[in-house]
Write a structure and sequence with these properties.
Blueprint (H helix, E strand, L loop, with lengths): L6 H13 L5 H5 L6 H17 L2 H24 L5 H14 L2 H4 L7 H18 L18 H14 L10 H10 L2 H18 L3 H27 L8
């Protein structure tokens, strides 16, 4: 008796049919690059259902995000690079490898311990791949990350690694703002700033991204100067 296909197998088969020579003209024309905006749009719609706690609608939007993954995997399969099975296999292996406290003998009790172990395993993986240069101050962030998320990620790394922010960030001002903020107040201020930027003809997204980029450069420069000061021999000519 033949095994019935799973829903995932059905979905991959449907995508292959859409991409076939006698399939859908629009689907046939798509590339990884042309689908990039679709992925952003679908993720944004999923986030809206999460914010609203709309579980029935969330199921639909999760499907819309999933089809983007299946679509990209299909394009890669046609190019002879990898397929959806490879994608699923690799992420499953990574999850098991990075959770030895679940799938192995190690036992961790807190989320903080898990994060420390996660970073250690990632460092070992880099070493196994032959990546020997010291890790960057800021972990690589997606270049198309929305500016607000990018700024949050930059600050998270500054705090997590206790990086010297110097004049790039007024820590006292950040702390003072944090004490008086609530979620409602934060939303109001962000909305008013976005509205004011629009009224002034300014690009709020671009302005925040450029400022966050500047903070990264300033912190990296300050850390580099501190390292040189601590090791004068490194500055001496050969």
């Amino acid at each position: 008796m033949a095994r019935s296909m799973s829903a995932i197998e059905d979905l991959c088969r449907t995508m292959a049919r859409l991409r076939a020579k006698d399939g859908c003209p629009w689907d046939q024309e798509q590339t990884h690059q042309s689908l990039a905006r679709c992925l952003i749009d679908e993720c944004s719609e999923l986030l809206e259902t999460i914010d609203h706690g709309d579980l029935p609608h969330m199921r639909e939007e999760l499907g819309d995000v999933l089809i983007q993954v299946v679509f990209h995997a299909r394009l890669a399969e046609e190019a002879g690079a990898f397929d959806f099975e490879d994608v699923a296999r690799e992420i499953n292996e990574k999850l098991i490898r990075r959770h030895p406290h679940v799938f192995g003998a190690d036992r961790l009790q807190t989320s903080a311990q898990v994060l420390v172990e996660w970073d250690r395993i990632k460092a070992n993986e880099r070493q196994a791949r032959g990546v020997v240069e010291p890790p960057p101050l800021f972990k690589p962030l997606p270049p198309r990350l929305p500016a607000l998320m990018f700024a949050e990620a930059v600050w998270k790394q500054i705090e997590k690694k206790q990086l010297p922010a110097g004049p790039a960030v007024d820590r006292a001002e950040v702390a003072a703002l944090a004490r008086e903020l609530s979620e409602a107040e934060l939303g109001r201020r962000l909305f008013e700033l976005a509205a004011a930027a629009r009224a002034r003809g300014l690009d709020a997204e671009g302005a925040l991204r450029r400022h966050a980029d500047g903070v990264v450069r300033a912190v990296e420069a300050q850390a580099g100067n501190a390292a040189n000061a601590a090791n004068p021999a490194a500055r001496a000519p050969a």
